[in-house]
Amino acid sequence: HQKATLTSKKNLIHMDGKNETSQQMHSIKKSNVAANESDDTPAAPRVRKHLDNAAVKNILEKIKIIVQKKQKRGNDAGRASRKRKLENNDNLAAKKEETMLETSNQSIPTDLSHIPQKSLVDIEMELVYTDEEDISFEFAEPVASTSTGSAPCGSEKENALRAPNDSTLPQIDKQLQTTLQEASTCYREENYTAAAEQFSTALELCSKGAAIDNPSESSPEDISSIASFIETKLVTCYLKLKKPDDALNHSHRSIILNSAYFRNHLRQAAVFRCLERYSEAARSAMIADYMYWLTGGTEQRTSKLIKVYWQAMIEEAITTEVSFSVMYTPFGTEVKANEIKKIEDMFAKKHPDYVEHVYTDPHGLHILPQTTKWPSLPPQQYLLTLGFRNKHIGKILERWSNKKLPIFSERKAPFCPLTKAEIITYWDNTGKKIIPVIDFIRSSKLTDTFCACSSGIEKLHYASFLGRLGRAKEQSQMINQAMAELATLPYLQDISQQDAQLLQSLMADAMDTLEGRRSDKRRVWNKIQKV
């Protein structure tokens, strides 16, 4: 049956659903999902002071730095754009219409392309599993590496993980450097268990202060970037060991510690893919693509590979979902209510099995990899229309999408705590059915229109719910995921002073929750829910 459609006023373009190839891919991927339930090592408290310093206490200053970098990048892109416009004197309106027609006729495939499993594996080998020797510092200017030069993967370099003598980048502690070199040797020898043990030891050294040769000359952000480098190494080790569940928290923490590095987001996407959480993988790949451009990436091949990965994850999310279907409609200006009605009528004709409840995401701003080209053209924006087999779930999602600060539960009496039996009933009947839809909506939506922190708040509510269900490990993973989302937020959109203070409070309370401090009822996100 048809699972997704992209429409325009002039053309109707179908994205057809499941076929034999996608089912084979699904079975192959399912075999990679690990059932290992062991605790992540090292635990979050081991890097507590780095999180406190870089991601919590200095979040306001960090936002200022990010804004400056975004403005500089935006100005550079603006200058390039103006130069192109001078070279091409076509009428702007005609050019816009031409772009829309190109979107409708060429840029979007007529069918789901079902990107082969081998292509995804090749992309991961090139961009995810590469044995990096360079530490990416979040606020290095200009972007530079800490090694003495580039070298192919698998090369032995005595001065790896070290800044050149004339570099302003910090010098890595010698003991830590030795440990990291031993870990990299194990990784190259495909002894991933030993490599994970060595990287865990390196992270322990880092948490004890053995990160920089001269700590007095380093900043908390520098230490965080080094810790992030180690966390992301642990991600690749656990993925190689086919333990994506063990890799998950490490992927989140690598982003919390250094949100600017695009590979951290792409590795998070790879973890989600192995866990068959395709919508979340798509969002991580989308952010990776944006961050690659924002931080100065210029290699078109790299950006293209990330977009292919993003596209594959969206397609996989569509073909594996059975409870709802979707339709994207490109638009250039504000869409009126009568036009939305026509779009939803068109959806009903094309997807008759999903008409128990149909609604269009009122906030737009969805983007797709096929028509996103940072920064040469503004991304084509789409309306997302969703149709459901279950009317109750559809109505809940429509109410959720219209809230300024969405909360996970739909309690009629928020001041009355739910009993354990009520929580289980709510989860079985509603909770586990709305989460996949929320994740899919965000797979093509880079920013939030209302409160900038709404995505993080929703995940923290979800984490509290998991805690009430007694699912402690999943609660920890969701809190870390929320913190990664919040830490990345200043790069994705402009942050007001009020949002920055809320962001800081959310991050601090999330860390306290991970460490078991204070009652969950006193958290910022629960106070917001009561209001």
UniProtKB/TrEMBL annotation:
Keywords: Cytoplasmic vesicle, Developmental protein, Differentiation, Golgi apparatus, Spermatogenesis. One of its GO terms (cellular component) is Golgi apparatus. Its main location: cytoplasm. InterPro entries: SPATA16, TPR-like_helical_dom_sf. It is found in: Cytoplasmic vesicle, Secretory vesicle, Acrosome; Golgi apparatus. It holds the Pfam family NYD-SP12_N. Residues 1-10, 101-110 have a biased composition (Polar residues). Residues 1-45, 70-110, 146-166 are annotated as: Disordered. GO terms for biological process: cell differentiation; spermatogenesis. Belongs to the SPATA16 family. PANTHER family: SPERMATOGENESIS-ASSOCIATED PROTEIN 16. This is Spermatogenesis-associated protein 16. It comes from Ardeotis kori.
